[in-house]
Task: structure prediction
Amino acid sequence: MKFTELDLPSELMRGIEQVGFTDLTPVQEESIPLALQGRDVAAQAQTGTGKTAAFLIALFTRLQKNKPTSTKGPRALILAPTRELVVQICADANGLGAHCPFKVQPIFGGVDYEKQRSALQSGVDIIVATPGRLIDYAKQNIFSLGHVESLVIDEADRMFDMGFIRDLRYILRKLPSFEKRQTMLFSATLSQRVMELAYEFMNIADKVRIEPEQVTAVRVEQIVYHVSRREKFPLLLGLLKKETKEVRVLIFVNTKREGEHLSGRLQQNSFKVAVLSGDIPQKKRMRILDDFKEAKLNFLVATDVASRGLHIEDVTHVVNYDLPQDAEDYVHRIGRTARAGAGGKAISFADEDLAYFLPDIEEYIGQKIPSTVPQDEDLCHDYKRGVPHKKAPVPEKRGGGGRSAPPRRRPGGKPSHKR
Result:
């Protein structure tokens, strides 16, 4: 189905054409027609499937066709769990709505408090926000939520995971009742707790489900290397040095400490790299992302704070240096590549401590991931050492290589070396 087949305002169609959209993705084809009828929609969809454009197009159409009932507050509210996702939604909104007369304002912590406060006081049409700071301004009566016509809750499941559900309920109770507004909810899974939220705050929502095997990008070339911990870094260097074309690589680790250590080792070997984790100040985090998007950095080492909601063009490779312990995180991570019809590679390292999570990942995505064991020619052993970073702790041995676990003690206190 093409966007020209939908009954969309001409101003919005100009924006859609300028960003290069022609055909609807599955989640757009199922959700936009329902939303254009004024119905509430609860959709199961991952990032990278076009869900942001789906709710923005429906929201812009509603605001463009309906005259505002008041000038006292925002007409639409989009709630997202992370600051990065807020920034990305605003960027997409400014692209799609370039010719629409709407002022879009991001609201999130870690940046100029008074500047955002002044923007709200001057009047905005659409707020895109994380819950915390939005509640702060609302409690000061900086603006009113009483005239919101459209509400979007993005990544609802993540709201629960990050402990935002109480804040979310507080905000929803400040809005007009569900029959006086349109609500669109998007989530990686329509779990029982997500649907309970929908039943409480939505007007008989139509459910849209895009199954996991559909949302794992078909253009992603996936492979798993079964490798020991000590061989992971030589394998990473060996694979990167084999690439002949310009690459943009997003490398995922499970902990901040491992990220700092890996970033330091890559820097020591002359790679332009930065590390992105949850406790990095917001301004620095945004600067790192901008540098990565503009190819000032070719490599970004990140914890799962970067796995959701980020749209970075031309990411050629996603490397799961640490295999994620949550199957959904695997889908979110590899969804950073092969976006907008492009191809990409997803390389995962399954070491002796994390390989146990591979079966759950394969069951979740509904397919067996091709796997191999690295050959000696795949490894780069001549890398530079002596990185001035603390080494990440070595987990207790579970039955593979690495250091031996300390001897156990019998009840009497004498050490036992039996395994």
Notes: Residues 388-419 have pLDDT under 50 and may be disordered. The CA atoms of residues 261 and 389 lie 6 Å apart.
